[in-house]
């Protein structure tokens, strides 16, 4: 059985070295779909559930939404992105460092690993960068 919950967050980023307009600092309202797969709980307060949606929300908010929302997401291994981040941080503005280029594909893998490490039985993640573009990561069960 699978359940999915959808979240949104706003972030800015850039892809330094990109050969198109994504090299510029810009923002997205990201949409994140988190899918959890497990058997149904039998008995008790959570009877008939894979997981309580409110527990799912708590973990995703803590691990993803809080660090990413209204932050400048940047690749810590990139000099120019790191310089911008340092300037923002000197003004007490929010940043989120990743050790990878901030493509939707890389971010979806990072988010998957982070939720997994937090103990969530996540089986798939889909990250929408625009209403028509998304990256998806899934484990085969
Ligand atoms: Zn972008």
From TrEMBL:
GO-annotated biological processes: tRNA queuosine(34) biosynthetic process
EC number(s) per entry: 4.-.-.-
Cofactor note: Binds 1 zinc ion per subunit.
Pathway: Purine metabolism; 7-cyano-7-deazaguanine biosynthesis
Cofactor or coenzyme needed: Zn(2+)
Claim: Zinc is one of the keywords in the record: yes
InterPro entries per the UniProt record, alphabetical: 6-PTP_synth/QueD (IPR007115), 6-PTP_synth/QueD_sf (IPR038418)
UniProt superkingdom: Bacteria
Xref: Gene3D superfamilies: 6-pyruvoyl tetrahydropterin synthase/QueD
Catalytic activity from the UniProt record: 7,8-dihydroneopterin 3'-triphosphate + H2O = 6-carboxy-5,6,7,8-tetrahydropterin + triphosphate + acetaldehyde + 2 H(+)
Coiled-coil region: none
Keyword Hydrolase recorded: no
Molecular function terms, GO-annotated: 6-carboxytetrahydropterin synthase activity; metal ion binding
Role, per record: Catalyzes the conversion of 7,8-dihydroneopterin triphosphate (H2NTP) to 6-carboxy-5,6,7,8-tetrahydropterin (CPH4) and acetaldehyde.
Annotated family: Belongs to the PTPS family. QueD subfamily.
Protein name per the record: 6-carboxy-5,6,7,8-tetrahydropterin synthase
Organism from which the protein derives: Neisseria zalophi
